[in-house]
Amino acid sequence: MREVAFIKQNKEKWLEIEQVIEGKIKKNPDDLSSMYINLVNDLSFAQTYYPKSKATLYINHLSTSVFQKIYKTRRIDKNRFLQFFLTEIPLVIYEYKRYLYYAFSFFFLFVCIGVLIFHYNKEFVSTILPPSYVNMTLENIKNGGAMDVYKGGSNWGSTIGIMFNNIMVGAKLYIFGIFGGVGSLYILLQNSIMLGVFQYLFYEHGALNDSLRGIWLHGTFEIFGMVIECMAGLVLGTSILFPKTFSRINSLKIGMKDSLKIFASTIPFTVVAAIIEGYVTRYALEMPEFLNLFIIFGCLITITFYYFIYPNIVHNKIKKQTLNGIL
């Protein structure tokens, strides 16, 4: 069957499904299940015969949206909080996982740009970081206390200040996505270049190992969370730029709802990062190196699993239940 004929044959059905997704038409769980299975068959056909077609992407979006709607019609567990983080967010992450890859690609690119600029222009650090902060850092490195900057202030006071500052940065990364995603990328650019410059500063003065042992104790959750917040901004921005067959306002509503969930998922990691920075990072160079590595890699494995692996597990589990008629 030619693609045009395939689209013409199924167009009315897909438009009706859009109305179901938007809530304009109500369906019971059994109807939703049948609708999902029908879409899976269409998607399988499209992926086989039109793998690079926009129609295939569109059907995939519809099936994912119906899949989430099926989940929402299921009986709500007593612990709504756990359900939100253990099921709802992973399903949203799964649907928009390509934006996760985009955000990380831009992050690594921007960090490399920061490193390269600083490598060829030593004065660049003064335009990115306050000169007083740079001088203090260099003095700390010279005196053998590369992480002494984290020893100032009380534990709890530092934790609270860091927590609110990081949440505000994350909120900017997310909210600025309303400008077609460009705003989020701009904030990510600023922070990523700053990270690249800061790490290269330690490298140039022979203290890279000390900085890795200290900064990444809290930075694993903090920086990873920052990239996820950029992902949320991209989801928000592209919902305006690329509404597919939805009206632009309905696409924005869907994008706002889903991107807000993605942003909310970073809050616990931001809070834990602030606690680590306020209470643990100040002792980074005094603790055994294996303990540094244990915390850093423990955080890395945890957050990588949650955003890259766990969404696939949840999606496949519920998909199997749905196809078996378990609602």
From TrEMBL:
Keywords: Membrane, Transmembrane, Transmembrane helix. The keyword Cell membrane does not apply. InterPro entries: SpoIIM-like (IPR002798). The chain crosses the membrane at residues 99-120, 173-203, 223-242, 262-284, 290-310. This is Putative membrane protein SpoIIM required for sporulation. It comes from Frigoriflavimonas asaccharolytica.
